[in-house]
């Protein structure tokens, strides 16, 4: 730099050369322009707005087969203790799973994997049922079978200890564990509770059939944990606050999602100490498998399996009144069968 | 192959092995999860844990016997562990080399000059062993293996493996991270600063290596030209150019490689230039180390391991009574890493300064309560500070039925915060998630008249009631939890509200007989509350209730250490 300086400047220490001065002036001008530009374009005179609402979904979707009309073929109740046999027999009575699942379908199986307890304790969907249904889905031509839940205990432990992960892997179904990217807010249009509430909407990407696989369990606060309560497992966030209005939230859950099929597993019912159980003495062999397109009717049968009246489980009639199904399941003319 | 290449490959191998063991320390059945991998092996091979817990307990627990193998090998060969195995040493060596790339030889030689302060680690070792002998094992705070396990488990991996294990949170992890960074940056002052000045494990090895039959030394007597190239990369600063200090040699073997005349050898004879076992240990330093004789009793006098300790100090299931626990725990963080619920957390001061970074349970931070069938923490603990339980012992089944389940503590309900107790709102989440059968939480029914719901004038026609007063709008009267009581007709009982439109309520019950006129009545609007109570004889302190309580700030039900299985003094019931 010194070499480029004019001679006069070199002779006058401290004096500014024109070139140097202009360069410094240019630098100052650039900073001035940049600061001015930043201030002009990014100034925020009002401060952050209070919780700008996120774009919310209106629900998790309607997966019901609308082309199945008329009451016939909407519910089968099968007696038996072998889950694979009862669920197969029941589905046959409804025209086979291919009446609901077509070749190339992507099926989401919603299990109840809420607790990290072994399958023998009956607090979760039985892995035999999951394996049987997933296998039938593939036989009906399903391209992909996904299995999911957002459990109460640690998700990966739950899926492992309940045997659901192993059952899924054995038949080639894929387990989707909850992760932040899968959650999106839902505002149910007719909902009072489900407003801007995170739900696991991401698991429905590409899915066109949904089957709920639910155990039959006692539940002190709600009266029973059956099919509709199983939909609770799609909620994220601190969902426990909804226990203040348990019947209200389950009624809204009935509107959040319309499943293709509901399979309520009353082979063994948890009759006391639900929904966690924890002891074999909480279980009772009830020997029934319920397969239906109507989640409300399924729960009405579930109430009967638990020996409870509809008055003891208010959400069933509330969900029926909200249009999610029928509480008087006999209107569906259920087919009663016994598995060989 | 040159021996220094072998050493470098060995260091890389053991460093990667440490990372691999840390990654797989998670319960599960996938190949990258913990299914028989010897994830504690490096911790067990470093013998300071074995020595300290032996002094404190009189036994070598389980695989800590590996430490004796390292002791024997060191007594024969010298500090092979420091040079070839130690992952923290490898990291320090690499960083020290990285920081001095391109430096002239003389500066390198100067940085590797022996300094008398290297004696400090011996005083430190003696201090820690005195503490251990007096019953409080503190070696893990600075022992390089627990240090690097803890740092990797709690500070490093959670930053990168959330896709594998979910987001993991650890309380005050910043402190662990800062200390790890400090250990790393000390290499800017001197290569392997930590190893030379601080490492008590290195000091232990130094004591053994001082007398080892095979050692480094100069082959021929006399001056060798004083080029000092042997010290250009001397990792231990053990002075191979002059009188070598055997206890300081970390067996990096760079001197063998560097000596232009090949005078330095690893052999079973003394160095021709003289040798000594250890750096000089001053009386002053030893007195300082002896201060441990006071410190441990002071800690005991502090009383923090007794009954007066923090009532929220919960230890993982199977943890020993507090004093026995502190005689074993090396704060390696393995239990914190393996816990699938992420509730085992490093203590800051909850267990006193002597319990720094020891595992405590924090149900507020984790993903779940302590899962009933999970026994991972006790099985990963290298020192049995947390005993390895079987599922049967944890749950009190079979031969453990008489002893009952392992209790972490007892849940207490905060009636001032609980929704049904304090705010007339139904809830009962705690009872729902209680995993004990029969549930440790039971309920008592209460019917409370809601605010502004008392003695309201109304017209009643069968099951329809027209209320002539404003009805509250902030609660959902049709949720199934609200009832109407008719004051003049208590025999009717409470009738559940089914529908509401404005001020008209429809309740359960028979319709009005035809021709019957509407009655003028006064009504109460009542909420049905199921209020939770804890049965301390059933509660195991698993914290499912605390974790799921919808009162999120300070939970309305919290687990305290009362009735914990591990201490008699915590017993609550008779």
Descriptive overview:
The complex is a heterodimer of chains A (340) and B (574). In chain A, strands 2, 3, 4, 5, 8, 9, 11, 12 and 13 form a nine-stranded mixed beta sheet that branches. In chain A, strands 1-10 form a two-stranded parallel sheet. Helices cover 30% and strands 20% of the residues of chain A. Chain A has helices spanning 7-11, 18-42, 83-93, 127-139, 155-161, 164-171, 227-230, 246-256, 295-305, 314-321, and strands spanning 61-62, 75-79, 106-111, 144-148, 174-176, 184-186, 197-199, 209-219, 223-225, 257-258, 261-270, 283-292, 335-338. In chain A, strand 8 and strand 9 (223-225) form a beta hairpin. The relative contact order of chain A is 0.16. Chain A has 340 residues and is of the alpha/beta class. Chain B has 574 residues and is of the alpha+beta class. Chain B has four domains: 3-212, no CATH class; 313-400, Alpha-Beta Plaits (2-Layer Sandwich); 410-445 and 533-560, Alpha-Beta Plaits (2-Layer Sandwich); 448-528, Elongation Factor Tu (Ef-tu), domain 3. Chain B has helices spanning 3-24, 41-45, 47-57, 66-77, 80-85, 87-99, 105-111, 120-133, 144-160, 162-165, 173-185, 193-198, 200-209, 254-258, 283-289, 292-302, 322-326, 334-338, 376-380, 391-395, 419-422, 429-433, 544-548, and strands at 215-218, 244-245, 264-267, 275-276, 344-346, 359-361, 410-413, 441-449, 456-461, 464-467, 482-486, 494-501, 504-507, 519-534, 557-560. In chain B, helix 3 (47-57) packs across helix 4. Chain B is elongated, with a radius of gyration of 33 Å. The termini of chain B are far apart.
